[in-house]
Design a protein that fits this description.
The protein is an all-alpha fold. It has two domains: 73 residues; 210 residues, MetI-like (MetI-like fold). Helix content is 70%, strand content 0%. The chain contains 14 helices and no strands. Helix 12 packs antiparallel against helix 13. The radius of gyration is 26 Å and the shape is flat.
């Protein structure tokens, strides 16, 4: 029985199109894998260098190219030196205190401010919101002098509170949360008003639970900003026991002649892994919060 030539042609075309799509998808995956490896290469090198003795860190070619035998020199000596000689555990504690306190203040203040701009009516509402957005256009370095003057005027120099309190006000945080809040069903707010709920109860009992993705996204963004901040802490903190990790890394790198590269690598790995871990744990909420807050 003869087959229809037209049917065979259509099947061939369908097969070719399917093959082309698979090849395109495979090529796309290959490009993404290569790009991911390029982006991860510095972190992977840091991970390897943190466990090596100082003499092996900058060898050319890299020691790791020798194969499995290259891992024989791995040890915790660099971490022990960072802790014993440079007090990295205390520095890590200071960074965690600043980050947690700054994020808590940011979520509290920005959510209240965004709630007001999203749902409440008051004179000059649009003007004040535009002024808040306008501050996002200012380079951060232009705020250093007034920032220091305000902190000094309230007596918080050389104090961790002088580092994390200014983070409470975030123009981006207000904008992002407001954009997310206005996407929530207005019927929930109206129903709560009819039931006699106060603004505070609506904010805390309805809006905040529904805004967990946006709050998680803002937490990750703010954590990265606070965790990696160098300029603001170095302006405020003079006592070495109050240093945060970025300042500690800079101080270790400025050691004369005998630079402790092994301890620097170990401290750098600790500094890098914590924000990476937080992002991996909350990446789904981060993406949901950004997409929900930017639409419209």
């Amino acid at each position: 029985m003869n087959q229809d030539p037209l049917l065979n042609t259509e099947q061939d075309l369908e097969y070719n199109n399917s093959l082309i799509k698979r090849l395109q998808r495979g090529f796309g995956y290959l490009v993404l894998i290569v790009a991911a490896l390029i982006c991860a290469a510095p972190l992977l090198w840091l991970l390897d260098a943190a466990f090596r003795p100082k003499i092996e860190i900058f060898q050319v070619p890299p020691v790791i190219m020798k194969g499995m035998t290259s891992f024989a020199s791995y040890s915790w000596a660099s971490f022990s030196r960072a802790i014993s000689e440079f007090n990295v555990l205390t520095t890590l504690t200071n960074s965690l205190i600043v980050a947690v306190a700054a994020i808590s203040l940011t979520l509290f203040v920005c959510s209240l401010c965004a709630f007001a701009f999203a749902y409440m009516q008051f004179p000059g509402k649009n003007f004040f919101f535009m002024m808040i957005l306008a501050t996002m256009m200012l380079p951060s370095v232009t705020m250093l002098v007034p920032y220091y003057q305000v902190v000094r005027s309230i007596g918080l120099t050389n104090n961790l509170a002088g580092v994390f309190i200014p983070y409470a006000a975030s123009a981006f945080g207000v904008f992002m949360l407001r954009q997310y809040f206005i996407k929530l069903p207005a019927s929930l707010i109206e129903a709560a008003k009819i039931d006699g709920a106060s603004w505070v109860k609506i904010w805390w009992g309805i809006i905040m639970p529904l805004s967990k993705p946006a709050l998680a996204a803002l937490t990750i963004i703010q954590f990265r900003l606070v965790w990696n901040d160098f300029l603001n802490p170095i302006l405020i903190l003079k006592d070495e026991t109050l240093f945060t990790l970025p300042i500690r890394l800079q101080a270790m790198d400025s050691t004369n002649f005998n630079v402790p590269y092994d301890a620097i690598m170990a401290t750098g790995l600790i500094t890098a892994l914590i924000p990476v871990t937080i992002f991996l744990l909350f990446q789904r909420q981060f993406i949901e919060g950004l997409t929900g807050g930017v639409k419209g």
